[in-house]
Amino acid sequence: MLSRRFFATAVKEVTHVSDVVIVGGGPAGLTMAAAIKSSHILKDLQCTLVESSDMCRSLQDYCDDPPERILNRCVSITPATVEHMKQLAAWKFVRPDRIQNYDYIRTYDGLTNASMDFDSPNLATMIENSNIQSSLYQRILELNSEQPLNQLVLKDNTKVTGITRDSKTNWPIVKLSNGDTIKTRLLIGCDGGRSPVRKFAGIESRGWAYNTWGIVGTLKYKNTGFRSPTGWQRFLPTGPLAQLPLPDSWLSIVWSVPPELAMILMSLSDKSFISILNAASRLSQDELNYLYKIARDEPEKLQDEVNWRLQVFNNKLTADQEEKYPLEVDYIVPKSRGRFPLKLSHADDYVDERIALVGDAAHTTHPLAGQGLNMGQADIQSLVKTLETARERGLDYGTKFALEPYFSTRYPANHVMLGVVDKIHKIYSAKFPPLVWARSLGVNVLNNLPLLKDLIVGQVSHRKMP
Ligand SMILES: Cc1cc2nc3c(=O)[nH]c(=O)nc-3n(C[C@H](O)[C@H](O)[C@H](O)COP(=O)(O)OP(=O)(O)OC[C@H]3O[C@@H](n4cnc5c(N)ncnc54)[C@H](O)[C@@H]3O)c2cc1C
């Protein structure tokens, strides 16, 4: 928690003034910066981006990484997000050897096996967060060289340590860890779920923790046979296990589990973790519960326990049934396992006088539908349009009045998405037999209604349907 003192720090002397200050160099902050500097209506604004991490060096290093070192923070992005990055001329800098398009996703119920398949050309693209950030960073460098008089100022390794307001103009004054202070007409918080900018503005954020951790990792299938790249999601009562395709039989996982199970899974050796992951994509919940106990109490026995159970299970499968499960995983990149707490949160407002919130600073969601970053991209498109309109009309773009259309456009859309994802999470967490039966019946019916499924795909991928 940030103390009140964070915001109350007295500013002796303002060292810089900037039309716009963006806090955060994550996917949202870098996209926001590239979008402002690409807009013929906004590009002359003096714009500064502040990021606490060693961003520029790590994004530069990313470009020279060997192809096999795919990082563990990957996201599934929609065609709308790809299109946005193309419009910003950032997509040309994406490393193509480290992305994977996929047309097909299969979801199946861990208790009943009821399944739903989504099949649509270019359904989504898997990409590392760093690939997104690095491409935007390179685009910003390109824009800076094209527009030497309108360069974006990038301040990485620099933390925002305090925010206050100018007593005369009411403009935000941002205090930085290097001792500088910047007064700004518009402060944009792209500073993630714990957003200091949101706290400074006193904007309430509502929601709840899912009491769940998302375990991520980069792994490799034993062989991919002739299968086309497919996304898999098994809804277990402990939380969904998603296996998403990367190039050359690599895959990225997000396995959502309660904290106690997360501790066990994180403590396993790489080989034992692979065993239990393969078990979790096929075996029954009763068997998994038993295996989780073995993993906790006698981890040295886990691989043998899993192997014979999987052998029994696999021997019963016909070739057709085999296709309904992901292939066996046999390698994990050492140290690629990581875990993240999962939370639903939604800010009551996205704007205040001279403040706008974007991306995770405004909302966070469960990753089961792969929407968080995509929602942030849609926020940016809306905020840029709002700023452009304000400027064209000769308004002061930093006022709450001018910023209001951004909030009124994005809040309802995000609210619906957050609600839908939360409901899916709740429905699939249920173990009560009548509910499990009802959800499986619903899924089976829905799976046979292609038009309705196309509609869902269209909504989730933000595509206009024919
Ligand atoms: C396990 C998992 C899987 C996910 N999968 C998907 C997916 O498949 N598809 C999808 O669309 N989304 C997915 N998401 C969500 C997605 O990762 C986030 O929505 C997205 O990364 C948020 O980007 P952001 O730029 O808003 O925030 P962040 O990435 O959190 O960036 C915030 C930045 O602000 C900086 N910052 C914070 N405070 C300060 C300060 N005081 N001073 C300076 N800098 C500061 C931080 O250093 C950071 O770089 C997933 C999330 C998780 C946890």
UniProtKB/TrEMBL annotation:
<dbReference type="GO" id="GO:0031314">
    <property type="term" value="C:extrinsic component of mitochondrial inner membrane"/>
</dbReference>
<dbReference type="GO" id="GO:0106364">
    <property type="term" value="F:4-hydroxy-3-all-trans-polyprenylbenzoate oxygenase activity"/>
</dbReference>
<dbReference type="InterPro" id="IPR018168">
    <property type="entry name" value="Ubi_Hdrlase_CS"/>
</dbReference>
<comment type="subunit">
    <text>Component of a multi-subunit COQ enzyme complex, composed of at least COQ3, COQ4, COQ5, COQ6, COQ7 and COQ9.</text>
</comment>
<keyword id="KW-0999">Mitochondrion inner membrane</keyword>
<keyword id="KW-0560">Oxidoreductase</keyword>
<dbReference type="InterPro" id="IPR002938">
    <property type="entry name" value="FAD-bd"/>
</dbReference>
<feature type="domain" description="FAD-binding">
    <location>
        <begin position="19"/>
        <end position="388"/>
    </location>
</feature>
<dbReference type="InterPro" id="IPR036188">
    <property type="entry name" value="FAD/NAD-bd_sf"/>
</dbReference>
<keyword id="KW-0274">FAD</keyword>
<dbReference type="InterPro" id="IPR010971">
    <property type="entry name" value="UbiH/COQ6"/>
</dbReference>
<keyword id="KW-0503">Monooxygenase</keyword>
<keyword id="KW-0472">Membrane</keyword>
<protein>
    <recommendedName>
        <fullName>Ubiquinone biosynthesis monooxygenase COQ6, mitochondrial</fullName>
        <ecNumber>1.14.15.45</ecNumber>
        <ecNumber>1.14.15.46</ecNumber>
    </recommendedName>
</protein>
<comment type="similarity">
    <text>Belongs to the UbiH/COQ6 family.</text>
</comment>
<dbReference type="GO" id="GO:0071949">
    <property type="term" value="F:FAD binding"/>
</dbReference>
<dbReference type="InterPro" id="IPR000689">
    <property type="entry name" value="UbQ_mOase_COQ6"/>
</dbReference>
<keyword id="KW-0496">Mitochondrion</keyword>
<comment type="pathway">
    <text>Cofactor biosynthesis; ubiquinone biosynthesis.</text>
</comment>
<comment type="function">
    <text>FAD-dependent monooxygenase required for two non-consecutive steps during ubiquinone biosynthesis. Required for the C5-ring hydroxylation during ubiquinone biosynthesis by catalyzing the hydroxylation of 4-hydroxy-3-(all-trans-polyprenyl)benzoic acid to 3,4-dihydroxy-5-(all-trans-polyprenyl)benzoic acid. Also acts downstream of coq4, for the C1-hydroxylation during ubiquinone biosynthesis by catalyzing the hydroxylation of 2-methoxy-6-(all-trans-polyprenyl)phenol to 2-methoxy-6-(all-trans-polyprenyl)benzene-1,4-diol.</text>
</comment>
<dbReference type="InterPro" id="IPR051205">
    <property type="entry name" value="UbiH/COQ6_monooxygenase"/>
</dbReference>
<keyword id="KW-0831">Ubiquinone biosynthesis</keyword>
<dbReference type="GO" id="GO:0120538">
    <property type="term" value="F:2-methoxy-6-polyprenolphenol 4-hydroxylase activity"/>
</dbReference>
<dbReference type="GO" id="GO:0016712">
    <property type="term" value="F:oxidoreductase activity, acting on paired donors, with incorporation or reduction of molecular oxygen, reduced flavin or flavoprotein as one donor, and incorporation of one atom of oxygen"/>
</dbReference>
<dbReference type="Pfam" id="PF01494">
    <property type="entry name" value="FAD_binding_3"/>
</dbReference>
<keyword id="KW-0285">Flavoprotein</keyword>
